[in-house]
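Minutes, methods subgroup
Present: GH (chair), OT, SY

1. OT presented the first of two proteins processed in the latest run. Sequence and structure tokens recorded below as shown on screen.
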Amino acid sequence: VFSSLGFYPVAGSDWYVIGTPIWPRAQIAVGDGTFEIIARNAGPGKLYVKSVRLNGEPLDVPWFRHGDVRAGGTLEFEMSDRPHGWGETEPLAIFNLD
């Protein structure tokens, strides 16, 4: 289920890694609000993430923390049919973060 939303948890941590969403829009109920996932241009052949915004701010790395989900808000993807290089910065760096 997580992977179909465009992110999935890293076991034993509070980190999520960005993937490819298959749904154009989804919501997760959290606390007193929601965490909304929007995937613009999602659909067949649109497998590549062009950009991601978390609560309106550009997300330049392919991960975020559980606190971002728990607080509610919006995760917005811009999808494409070709790679754009988004998320290619130090993909294993998440395992070195505190």
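2. SY then presented the second protein from the same run.
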Amino acid sequence: MGAVIRVTGTAGRFAEFRERIRWMLVREMDVEPYTEHHDEGGLEYRFEAAVRLPFPAFAAATVDFQELAVEAEWDDAAQGLRRRATIVAGKLTGQESVPLGAAAANLCVELSQDGSLAFALACALRGGAWIGYCADADRHAYLRGEAQALWFADAAGDRWTRRDGGAHDAPIDPDELAALEALAFDFAGAWLWYDAAPPAETALERSRYDAHGWPVHGANLLAGRRRELMAAGARHDTLSPEARALRDRVHAAWQERS
């Protein structure tokens, strides 16, 4: 993608903010081409490139619209990163970066009928076996998939529990645990927020959920991701054929564990 700027918060201010931004962008002679994609949940501006994004205009506008938050997401190809930044009341309140492709490769995310997280799997091949992280609205775990065995580590712990009737448990190799943690961190940073996280870290997502009337669960999709999936058939799938076979095994075992 080029870049996306989303505006969320009090719906009653969207129309006025939209007109303010239009007026400000008209005055910027070198703004990248963009399109608008708005709904009742917020405003969205999609830019074809991320070379000269009008961050100053959006930041300045939020000074007079302090009940709104501006979240920008763009690809920094030169650094190999996908970057995000959040602006509230004219100030930068959050920023993060994840490796390009880290959140896209071998990933499946599904919504329940009520829009909550039904099932998610992020996985990668390591040393001839699959490792991964899976979650739903109420639980999460690491996993390891071999030809004849499937292992879980409940609550992202440090010991495997086997699912095929073999040895009951075994410690996770420290190097493998580090790889699992990195995979889970990359996925969660791009897709999820957790109810157990400190309130200061989740205040923006909680306000978005409250504005939509969405209930909060243990694990929750970022509001922007949830809207994207709701508009795209409630499913996002970039799994390879091999990873899809793993997903079927994991999903069946996951259902048995519920």
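Chair's summary of item 2: The longest strand covers residues 117-126.
Next meeting: continue with the remaining queue.
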